Amino acid sequence: MQQLEELTRGAQDFGAAPGGRATNGRATDGQTATEQPVHIHRRKVQSADLTADEAEVARVMQICNACRYCEGFCAVFPAMTRRLEFGKGDVNYLANLCHNCGGCLHACQYAPPHEFMVNVPQAMAKVRVQTYGDYAWPAALGGLYKRNGLAVSLIASAALVLFLALAAHLAGGLLHEPLAGNFYAVFPHNTLALMFGAVFLFSMLALGIGVTRFWRDVSPGSASGPAIAEATHDALRLRYLGGGHGKGCNNEDDAFSLARRRFHHFTFYGFMLCFAATCVATLYHYLLDWHAPYPFFSAPVLLGTAGGIGLLIGPAGLLWLNLKRHPMQGDAAQRPMDRGFIVLLFLISLTGLLLLALRDTRVMGLMLALHLGVVMALFLTLPYGKFAHGIFRSAALLKFAIEKRQPNKLQLGSD
């Protein structure tokens, strides 16, 4: 244990010393405390281009690289062992590879209040949101990540709902006699398709350009079929929310729980079922010339209902966990952004299911304006909010799957 302490202290000083030179804080004859070398390794942290948050990740990774206790916890630590220095691309890659499960924080002997102050989840979370802004497109909108909180989401939703409600009222469709669930009697199909399609395509374009820039900077190498299959499998199963041992994440304390993984699954697959419902309805409309409204036992309605239920359970559970989460796990400054995204997903599902239940009543137009306003708010904030974490994390998982198939020239870890 004493030898490990010496090694990690050397790594701590190595990252903190001017110019990246390693010291162990103890002087010999003719040397000051800041001049005594520690021969852990002779490469220095590439800190010239790092922000303060990125430099903190590099410092923490130097210490973790000396300790290696958490090497089997998740993908971050095996990826870490392939490096002796951590440049900007490495830091951004590792930050997005981190799933913020919290296991390493509670297992770490150098976590606060230890003088090394190692907090991997928090350091990674701060850099993670920074990467979203750095790679955002257009670049001028990158700052929205810092302002896209719960209040912004709710205000945007309310404004769009009022706009659509006013439009429906002026067209005489806000309150009306039952229309047999015909949404297009309130808002024409082509108008909705053009308006929502344009916003959604812009969001996907912005996210695509951003993650492409990230991909180039982390220098992933060539993707093989097995690497793509593994990354897809790990992303869809949320493998690394299992904590490395299958017992789950830590949330408010050091107890393990699979709740976060399960609520993420409800959310993700609920969202995908709703997306599938939209795709099937589009095929019905344009390919088969079957126009809405569709009966309850049709594929679009069944898919949308199942997805809507998932998007009630998942976001509600994630919000509950977010409110209880230990303050040292993650970045408290990002919680408004997290909660804004969660609440929007929940409101989309709630208003969608209410619209389905009330589509044959006089208030269908009002419910339609309410639902579409929330959906539009989500689409507008999609490229500059929490949704980005799924895109960037999937890219990081693919890089990890590629990298682990390449020879490890360092041969310092279990890889």
TrEMBL record:
Q: Looking at the keywords, is Transmembrane helix present?
A: yes
For this UniProt record, the keywords arranged alphabetically read as follows: Membrane, Transmembrane, Transmembrane helix
Alphabetical list of InterPro entries matching this protein: Citrate_utilization_prot_B, NarG-like_sf
Write out the transmembrane intervals. 150-172, 192-215, 266-287, 299-321, 341-358, 364-384
Question: Biased composition, Polar residues: where in the chain?
Answer: 25-35
Q: Which residues lie within the region annotated Disordered?
A: 1-45
What protein name applies here? Answer: Citrate utilization protein B
